[in-house]
Amino acid sequence: MTGDPEPISAQARRALEQELADLRDERRLVAGTLHDSLSVGDQADQADELQRADQLERIDRRIEDITERLRQAEEAGPAPTDEVGVGSTVTVRFPDGSVESLQVGELAEALDQTLVTADSPLGRALLGHRPGDTVHYQTPDGPASAVVVSIGGSPTSS
C-alpha cells in the first residue's frame, strides 16, 4: 500500500463498524467491573483488577485503530476505477482460461471466496495495475500470473 489513505469496500466498512460497536459494548462491560483501587481487597482481587485494566487498554487501542482506519477511508473516497486499489473489484484471467471477479480488501472473511487481501501475494501484485496488465506473484506451488481484464462491477466467481 502507498501510505496514503486507502479506500475500503462497503463490506469491509460494515465489518469494521460492527467490530467497533462490539468493542464499545465490551468496553462498557469491562469498565463497569473496574473498582476504585482503594477498595480492592486481597492480592487476587488486585490481580483481577490489573487484568481487567490491561484488557480495557487493549480494547481502547483497537477502538482507536478502527476509528482511525474508518476516518482515513472516508478521506480517501471511493475505490479507484482506473487502476486496482484497496476496495476495487477486479476481473482477472488466469493462464488456465478461468476468469474471476475479486474484491481487493483489507479484511479476510472466512467464507468470502471473492475477496483477496491487499497484503496477499495476488492482492499485492494487482495493486496499481490497469486492464490489460499481466501481474506475477508467488504461490505455495510456485510462480503464478494473471491478466487484469477489467476494474469495477460486482465480485463473482466463475
TrEMBL record:
UniProt key word Aminoacyl-tRNA synthetase: no
State the SUPFAM superfamilies in the record.
FKBP-like, GreA transcript cleavage protein, N-terminal domain
UniProt-listed InterPro entries? GreA/GreB_C_sf, Tscrpt_elong_fac_GreA/B_C, Tscrpt_elong_fac_GreA/B_fam, Tscrpt_elong_fac_GreA/B_N, Tscrpt_elong_fac_GreA/B_N_sf
Q: Where is the Transcription elongation factor GreA/GreB C-terminal domain?
A: 80-151
State the source organism's domain of life.
Bacteria
GO molecular function terms here?
A: translation elongation factor activity
Pfam hit, one:
GreA_GreB
Q: Identify the residues that the record assigns to the Transcription elongation factor GreA/GreB N-terminal domain, covering every copy.
A: 7-74
Is Transcription regulation among the key words of this record? yes
Where in this protein does the record put region Disordered?
Answer: 69-89
Keywords noted in UniProt: Elongation factor, Protein biosynthesis, Transcription, Transcription regulation
Identify this protein by name: GreA/GreB family elongation factor
What organism, scientifically named, is this protein from? Streptomyces musisoli
